[in-house]
Amino acid sequence: MQAWARELGFSQIGIAGVDLSSAEPGLLQWLDNGFHGEMAYMETHGLKRARPAELVPGTVSVITARMDYLPRDTPAQWQDKELSRLNDAAEAVISIYARGRDYHKVLRSRLQKLSDRIGEELGPFGHRVFTDSAPVLEAELAARSGQGWRGKHTLLLNREAGSMFFLGEIYVDMALEPSEPVAPHCGSCSACIDVCPTQAIIAPHRLDARRCISYLTIEHAGPIPLDLRPLIGNRIYGCDDCQLICPWNKFAQRSTLPDFDERHGLGHAQLVDLMAWTEDQFLHYTEGSPIRRIGHERWQRNVAVAMGNMWRESGDVSLRDGLAVHRAHSSMLVREHVLWGLAQR
Known about the structure:
This protein is α+β, with helices and mostly antiparallel strands. It has 15 helices and 10 strands.
C-alpha cells in the first residue's frame, strides 16, 4: 500500500483503529470553553468526530495519509525568508499551503484513486474518503497511526518531514493491523508558543482558535476584534509562524506534485495590488484555490487590516492612498476596516 500511495504523491500511509474514546474528554472540554469560536459545525457534530463508526457505519479501520506541500522550488533557508517577509511593509503574507491548488481537491481525488487500487487488489470494500471536509479528528488519527506526534501547537509533527503536509483519511470496513504510534520529540521547546503573535496557544497542546490568525482571517466572518487587529501584521490569509519557527521543519520535504506550486505570484503579492482587485479579479486569481472560499468581501477586510498595520509601522503613503480609495466602500464590513486602517497613523 505504501508503494501505491507514493505513486499517487502521498508521503506516508498508516492504519488507525476506531476507538478514540480517550480523546473525547479533551474534545468536549475544548468545545465547552468556546475555543472553537464561530465554527458551529464543530459543536454540531459533537462526538461524531471521535467516533468513526458513527460517522460512517461499518467502519472498522482508518487508513491515514499525509502529503507534503512545500512547493517544488522552495529555496534553502525558506523558514528565515518567510519570517523576514513579515517585516516587509509592502508584502501580503499568505500561508504557504494556500498559494497553490486547493488541497481538498488534490487529496480527495488521490485518496479515491488509492481506494480504487486497494479494491482492485483485495476486491470490493466499503469506504469513504476525507480530507478536512467532515467531522474527523484528523491529527488524532494520524498520530495514532504513526504519522507523527502532536506538537505543542496541536499540529502533527514528523521527524523526517516537520509539519508542512496535509492529512487525509479513508474509512474502511476491513479490519487492518494498526500502525505503531511514535514517541513525541518536542522536549522542553516552546518556540511555537512563544512566537504566536496573538498568544492563541494558551498552553502546550491547547489552542484558543478565537485568537488564532488563521481562524480570524479564514473562518471568522464578521469584524475582526479591535484588540487583535494590530497583532495580525501583514498576514492576510492564515498564519505559518508556529511552523516557521519550529526546529523540526528544517526537515520539511518539497512536494513531488506541481499542484502546490505557487500561483499568480501569491508568494510575493503586494498589499496595494490585492486591495485593488475587483470581485471578478478575485474570482479569477483564486480559481481552484482554497482562498476563494472566504469571498471577496472578507478578502478585502483582511487586506485592509494588513495595510493599516503596515501604514502604522512604515508610514508608506502608498498604503494610505490604497486604503483611501475604499473609504466609501459599499460593504459596511470592508468600510469599517478601511477606516480603522486609515486611522492607524
